[in-house]
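User: Structure tokens for both sequences below?

Assistant:
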Amino acid sequence: MSQALSLLQTASGDDDAGMVVAGLVLFGPVIAPVLFLIGAFVVAHRVLRARRERRPPLDTGTLGRLSLLGLSAAYAAVSTGLMSGPWWMSESEYCNVIGFPADRITTRTFPLSMRCGPDGELVPSWVNPVLVAGLTLALAALTAAALTAYRARRRTWAS
């Protein structure tokens, strides 16, 4: 929450790029699931079509789209984690409103965390596992896409 608040405060100037980043963080919890669903539909459609045509289902394009799917899941997790809690309040006010002691507030960027006292975690528990899983999927799919493209290129050179 404090990360989102500081991002919005720095973007309040005349910097257009800062406003775009602030908008992406603000609307991320709404935009990211839509992107994820569209990406999942596109990947599923390509895999089913390839199976129907008796082609390998995971070609370079499908693997690239699969990596975008992982990145959109990571984007959803990060934007939801950054916007957990009302960003218009300070951390101490929000901790007092929800009933946690505001004497010691700690924030961390990775793993994404904001604690009010020893027990009051404000970032949902699913955020960090989804972030790591999405980034891992994106990295694995990009690596597989690069290897697939390399093998296809090597086959054309050999013949």
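Moving on to the next sequence.
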Amino acid sequence: MEPAARPAVVIDNGTGYSKLGFSGNSEPSFTIPTVVAVNESFLDQSETCSSANWIAQYNAGVMADLDFFIGDEALSHFRSSGLYSLKKPIHHGQVDDWDTMERYWQQCIFNYLRCNPEEHYFLLTDSPVSTPESRECTGEIMFETFNVPGLYISVQSVLSLSAGYAFLKSLSDENSDSMSDMTGVVVDIGDGAPHVVPVVNGYVIGSSIKSFPFSGSDVTQFVLQLLQERGELIPPEDSLDIARKVKEMYCYTSSDIVKEFKKHDKNPDKYVKQWSSIKPKTGVPYTIDIGYERFLGPEIFFHPEIYSADFSTPLPELIDSCVQSAPIDTRRALYKNIVLSGGTTMFKDFHKRLQNDIKKIVDDRVAATNARHHVEVKPVEVNVVTHPIQSYAVWFGGSVAASNPEFYESCHTKEEYEEHGASICRTSTVFKGMY
């Protein structure tokens, strides 16, 4: 069977988690942490062996290449054994350790997806601020190491927008042109490197991209900090994992932080939750109370100064600034389609708070313009799009794109790579089938 007749492999590598699966599916087959556990003892042995004992040196090097784990298995081996160290190939949304990234892809393809890479086209995702050189490295590994027949590297923000449209189409009987107009602002907040990215007709406006310094991992750290400051006794070896679970299970976005404090103080029994577990080292059970942390965690996106004095621009203002820096004839369309992506945008009522705050900023500007120039400017529609697949929107967008026949025509092929080199991977065309 020809590779183009098989479903494409879709891999979305994020700072915290990676999503793996095949095109045409509605959700990824696997969602695993983007970490690798390597056995340092073999690496040390390889380095300390004398050059004369080349056989021992070679064997140690081979074992170092073989003895590693990824995802949850990596975390498990790291916790249970002192032989393994953890490596994260991606920081702030960009690959900075290509050897580890290659190992990670190897396990993803052979141990998780269990497919022959020579028989499938591949769609990989990339950060909107990634460099052309980074895409070249990706192409080299895919074509040289895994010998893939075809590769498409897509910007994550475009796929998020595509996922939003695909989801809306599934709920709508209409097939209007506006549904396929790939214009909007993507607010992508995962475990690392949140970005606000304007997309017009499927193309990213690079000069208008805005970065927000705090991500889901910062919410986790802030929740942990608040619990510790309040005197909750959390086992140090389990602290980050507990804070992450508290964040995912109990945190929500308040509409007014002052009113929320008053509600908690007035009726603590209703709002305070309890977390019970067992200390991993001693086996002793313990319980902690979760109070203000429930709404203060997500509040760093609206009042970032409560977490760090180094940054004070709220996320709604950053989104407004992003739109205002885009071409003037695209701004109304951008405000009308603000799409959320990433697991950190899944907090309860997050989209409502974001929409209300952006709407207030925009309405105040319109009112000021009307008063200053004595004109009647048409109100600006602000719409924040939310859907159940936000946590894996990028992957789903890739699945939709790669299931279209035009995808295979838009891929860079092995033959093109051999003829022109890795530079062909610097750009990928946007095709109609993406939306």
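User: Anything stand out in the second?

Assistant: The CA atoms of residues 143 and 414 lie 6 Å apart.
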